[in-house]
Design goal:
The complex is a heterodimer.
Chain A (H helix, E strand, L loop, with lengths): L1 H9 L15 H11 L18 H15 L4 H12 L14 H32 L3 H16 L1
Helix pairs in contact in A: 2-3, 3-4
Chain B lengths: L6 H18 L19 E2 L10 E2 L9 E6 L4 H15 L3 E7 L6 H9 L6 E4 L3 H5 L7 E5 L5 E6 L4 H17 L2
Parallel strand pairs in B: 3-4, 4-5
Antiparallel strand pairs in B: 1-2, 3-6, 6-7
Classes of the chains: A mainly alpha, B alpha/beta.
C-alpha cells in the first residue's frame, strides 16, 4: 500500500497514449507524442489528445500516427486534423488576422493603460503648477493685503 | 469634454463585463464546422439497415434540395430526445440522412431504428468513426445543414429539439430552399 503510494508519487504526469497505439519506430513515436501535445481534444477541450482518455482523442492519436507513418511532415500531419476540426484544435494558436487580438490584446491593453496613466500623471503635475498664482493674481493679493492695512 | 475622459476606463470595463457575461451563456462545444460554406468532404459509410443497399456518402448531398445530415448512435441519450423531431421532419418531407456513429455492437443501430422508427432516407454505418472524423464530428448528436450545392452551411451540436428546429434550422432550410 505504502509502496504503491510511493510509486504513484514517483510516476510522472501520465499520458493517455496506450502501448497498442504506439508506433514501432521510436523516432516516429516521439514525433507523434510531440505533435499530440499540440492538439486539443474536442471532447474535453482543455486537454491535449495525448492527455485525454476520450475515445475520439484515441482515434485522432491513431490518425496522427497513420499520417506520420505515411511520411507526412509535422505541419502536414497537424494540417490534416486542423482541416477537419478547425484551428481551434491547435493548443498554440497560429498568428493570423483573426487571432491578432488573442496574441496582442494584452500588449494593447498595457499600452492604452500606459498612455492613460501618463496623461493622468502629466495632468496632475500641470494642475500642481496651475495651483501657483500668476503675476496678476499676486498683484491682486498684494493690493488686497495693502487695502487691509489701510482700513 | 476632458472631464469625461475619466469615463473611458469605466466604459472599457463595462464593455468587458458584457463580453464575459455573453460568454457565460455560450456553449463551448458549439463550434462552427471547419467546412462552413465549403463542400461536404468525401466520406463513405456502409449500409446497415436490412434491405438497404445504399449506405451514405457525400455524393448523396447537393442534389437540388437542402438536406440535414444527422449523426446519431443507439447508445446516445440526447439522440432519443431529438428522434421524434426527426420523425416529424421526415413526415413533413424534409430530407434527412443519417450517419450511425461508433456503434458498440454490430446491428445495434439497425435494431434501434427498427424499434423507434427510421427517419432517414439514406443512412450509413460509421462504427470506426472514420467518416465522422472526415467531417469533423466531435460527438453525438450532431446535425449538419447541407445546401443545394452540397456545401455545409451550419453545424448544430446537441439534440435538435423542437425549439432548435423552429428557431435555427427551419429558417435556414427555408432560406436555402430559395437559393438557386
Amino acid at each position: 500500500m505504502v509502496l504503491a503510494a510511493a510509486l504513484a508519487l514517483l510516476a510522472g504526469p501520465a499520458v493517455a497514449v496506450k502501448p497498442d497505439e504506439q508506433l514501432a519506430d521510436p523516432a516516429l513515436e516521439a514525433r507523434a507524442l510531440r505533435l499530440g501535445k499540440e492538439l486539443r481534444c474536442v471532447v474535453c477541450q482543455n486537454q491535449s489528445i495525448d492527455d485525454s482518455d476520450a475515445e475520439l482523442a484515441r482515434d485522432l492519436r491513431l490518425i496522427l500516427r497513420e499520417r506520420i507513418a505515411a511520411g507526412d511532415s509535422d505541419s502536414q500531419a497537424i494540417d490534416f486534423i486542423v482541416a477537419r476540426y478547425g484551428s481551434f484544435v491547435q493548443l498554440r494558436p497560429p498568428l493570423r488576422v483573426d487571432t491578432f487580438l488573442l496574441w496582442f490584446g494584452p500588449v494593447l491593453v498595457l499600452v492604452l493603460g500606459g498612455i492613460g496613466a501618463a496623461l493622468y500623471v502629466r495632468g496632475r503635475s500641470r494642475a500642481a503648477v496651475a495651483g501657483a498664482l500668476s503675476a496678476d493674481e499676486e498683484a491682486e493679493v498684494a493690493r488686497m493685503l495693502d487695502g487691509d492695512k489701510v482700513s | 469634454m476632458k472631464r469625461l475622459l475619466f469615463l473611458l476606463p469605466v466604459v472599457g470595463f463595462v464593455a468587458l463585463l458584457v463580453v464575459f457575461f455573453v460568454g457565460l451563456g455560450r456553449d463551448p462545444r458549439a463550434l462552427p464546422s471547419a467546412f462552413l460554406d465549403k463542400p461536404l468532404p468525401a466520406f463513405a459509410a456502409a449500409p446497415f439497415r436490412p434491405g438497404d443497399p445504399n449506405g451514405l456518402s457525400n455524393a448523396d448531398f447537393g442534389k437540388g434540395e437542402p438536406a440535414l445530415l444527422n449523426v446519431f448512435a443507439s447508445w446516445c441519450g440526447p439522440c432519443r430526445v431529438e428522434h421524434p423531431v426527426l420523425m416529424r421532419l421526415r413526415s413533413e418531407g424534409v430530407v434527412v440522412h443519417g450517419l450511425d456513429w461508433k456503434e458498440r455492437s454490430p446491428g445495434a443501430g439497425a435494431r434501434w431504428l427498427a424499434q423507434n422508427g427510421d427517419p432517414y432516407i439514406r443512412a450509413g454505418d460509421d462504427t470506426s468513426g472514420r467518416a465522422g472524423i472526415e467531417i469533423g464530428v466531435a460527438g453525438v448528436p450532431e446535425t449538419f445543414v447541407i445546401d443545394k450545392q452540397g456545401r455545409v452551411r451550419y453545424r448544430h451540436v446537441g439534440a435538435v429539439t423542437p425549439d432548435v428546429w423552429e428557431k435555427k434550422l427551419a429558417p435556414l432550410m427555408e432560406q436555402l430552399r430559395k437559393e438557386s
